[in-house]
Amino acid sequence: MSPLLTPPAAIEYAPYYHTYVKLIAGDPLEALRRQPRELRQLLAGLTEEQGTFRYAPGKWSIKENLVHMLDTERIFAYRALRIGRGDTTPLPGFEQDDYVPVSGADSRSFAGILAEYDAVRAATLSLLEAFTAEAVARQGTASGQPVSVRALAYILPGHEAHHLNLLRERYLPGLQ
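The structure assignment produced for this chain is given below.
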């Protein structure tokens, strides 16, 4: 049995991340494999202009959400790499609200963002699939909080599931 099929214990991640962990029932790798199809179904038929839609003033656009998902996946996968390889150096946090405005997301095409998405997702899956049971159980510190590789494997698809839900519930209804 894969060590990733056992959900992380609450002590393996900061309470904030429970929002994401609880969204993943079953194999987190299967969730990561399924999400690209879900994302493409949600975006099907949207124009480039609709990609800049914000459901309220001060909220990110659809494209900004997508690039935020990519940034976050890269950072969480990097954390998993470092911790999985036994690096005990505390890892810094990141401020998403600083990243998004300078990402240039709204000037990018959906095709370009989705090509990058595919590359990032393939790299994330390769990394997680290669971890041994010992690596999955390793714990480290990120953003001043404990986190295990197992927890990161659930947080990664959970974070995306959260944003897919936002697209369904807040963004797409505003485009009709």
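Interim note for the steering committee: The radius of gyration is 16 Å. Residues 15-175 form a domain with the Four Helix Bundle (Hemerythrin (Met), subunit A) fold (CATH 1.20.120.450).
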